[in-house]
Structure formats: C-alpha cells, structure tokens
Design a protein that fits this description.
With about 350 residues, this protein is an alpha/beta fold. It is built from 9 helices and 15 strands. The strands form 3 sheets. Strands 3, 4, 5, 6, 7, 14 and 15 form a 7-stranded mixed sheet that branches. A 6-stranded parallel sheet has the order 10-9-8-11-12-13, sandwiched between helices. Strands 1-2 form a two-stranded antiparallel sheet. Strand 8, helix 3 and strand 9 form a beta-alpha-beta unit. Helix 2 packs across helix 3, helix 2 packs across helix 8 and helix 5 runs parallel beside helix 6. The two termini are about 25 Å apart.
Amino acid sequence: MSAALPASGREWHLVARPHGWPKAEDFALREAPVTAPGEGRVLVRNLHFSVDPYMRGRMNDVKSYTPPFKLDHPMDGGAVGEVIASNAEGFAVGDHVLHGLGWREYAEVPAERAVKVDESLAPLSAYLGVLGMTGLTAYAGLFEVASFKEGDAVFVSGAAGAVGSQVGQMARIKGASRVIGSAGSDEKVRLLVEEYGFHAAFNYHDGPVVEQLRAAAPDGIDVYFDNVGGEHLEAAISSLNLHGRVTVCGMIAQYNATEPPPGPRNLALVIGKRLRIQGMLVNDHAALQPQFVQEVAGWLASGELKYRETFVEGIENGFDAFLGLLRGENTGKMIVSLV
C-alpha cells in the first residue's frame, strides 16, 4: 500500500452561488480527513490542478451539459498528481496520473478514472493543457468541427489563452493562408505574432472589433474559432466568406453577465453567406485522442508548436487563480501548483 498517510488535506468548497462575478465569500478552503483508498481506488497527492472558464457555469444551479458544483462539497476539475497509496491493480506508489478531482490537495480516485502520464514525454503540467483537454479542444474544434482545410483564413478570439493559442498555431502548421488573433493586451498581441507565428493580431480594447478584424483580414476569413462571443462573434459574421464555418467553444465575455447580453445583430448574414455555426464540447471528440497526442507530441518535439503556462503557487490561492483567469490575467493555461 504505502507509508503513513497525512491526517488531512485542504480542499476548495463552493458555499454560495455567485451572482455576477464570483466573490471570495462564495468559496471556502476547508480541511478534510485523508483516508486509505478503497477497493479499486488510488490516493493521489495532487501536484497541479486546472482552473478553466467552463467552471464558472458549473457554479450556477442550472441544468447544463455538465452537472453544477454542489454547495459545501469539494469542487472538481483536471489535476495531475502522484499516487501515494494504491488499492488498484495496475497502479503503484510513485505513478503519476491525470484525473478529474482537482481543487484539493489529496484525492481518492477510482482507478478507471485515472490515466497514467509520462513525465519523460512532457512536464506533468502539460497534461492539463497542451497535451490535455485544452489541446484536444483546439485540435477537435479546428479540424473536426470547423472542417479546416489548407488555405483557409482563420480568426481566433481569446487567442493568447490556452485553447486559442493552440488553435492559431495548429492552423498555421496545417497551411492556413492567414491566421488572425485577438487578445486583451499589447503584450499578448506581440506574443501571438512574434512567438506563436500569427500573421496578424490586435488588442480588442483598441477599437471596435469589426473594424480591427476587417483591417487584419481584408480578404475576409473562412473559419472563426470563438472563445469570447458577443462583439467578437458579430464581427466574425461580418468578415466570414461564403460557406464560412464557426466553432463556438466558449463565450467568456458573458459568463458573469447578470442580464442577457445582446446577440449578434447581423445573423441574417448567415443565410446569404451559407455560414455554419456549430457549438462544441470536447467530450464528444474523445475518439481523436490517440491521433491528437501523436501529432501534437511531434509538433512539440520539433518546436513547431509552442505553449505558455501561468502558474499560481499554493492551494490557498486557488480562488484568486480562477478570478484571474476570468479577468484574462493568464497567458496560456492557468494552473494552480501545489508542488
């Protein structure tokens, strides 16, 4: 089994449903006992856990594609850690695993929900981002949902984030004629062009998105990968060429809205341009996982694909990391590190 186990560990609980922007009093960091794993389970000491925009929706008590967080229970999400006790065949103390019980220091995980990961292939944190759910979201959303083909012009909103930065680079690697990104600071705009190889990028605070996009893509766009919604989606509809495709991955601009945001006012263009607008959930594309890991690992090894991570140290700063994510303070994947 293992050496002596810790008596307790800390975990983040949701204690009230946020109205608008989440507040510190909506959350509590609590001590919980740590016990030996039950039959077919492993005890994991989490080393890193992920905070993601979709978690904001889970804080509301509404029916959705994934159940809401329960009040006064630990929240969950992607995490990587080290097995410190095993009561499951195939898992040994010292193994590193990816699982879904983040937001806590210690997790008792059913063996069928734990996936071994290899630190020699990539840093453990990469399995929460570029080689994990966010990377697969970018890959599936661009190639399967948006039906990307060589020569397409691609626009990505939230392009310096974990998903958006991968979408733009994947499009470039696969032969996009032009890749345009939007971001919320001049520093991020420089990163997109100078490090990630976008052909053009703009700061959406600098003026109307529709005008900046038109200047960056004078010949229009064929694919729009939407992480933001709102004004960005309306601008993209204006710039999309005939038979353009939109992957709607996220709408972070309205996650904390207390009133219904105005929809795009130009949806009539969808008819004449014969546009396709499709929402996506990464869980629908699990079959792509082996192909995704093989191809992306190759791009990482060759240096064609680059990624950034923003680390917030210490479980006590988990709420601050999540709020920072919603405010756009991260570049690339936002990760809470417990190492």
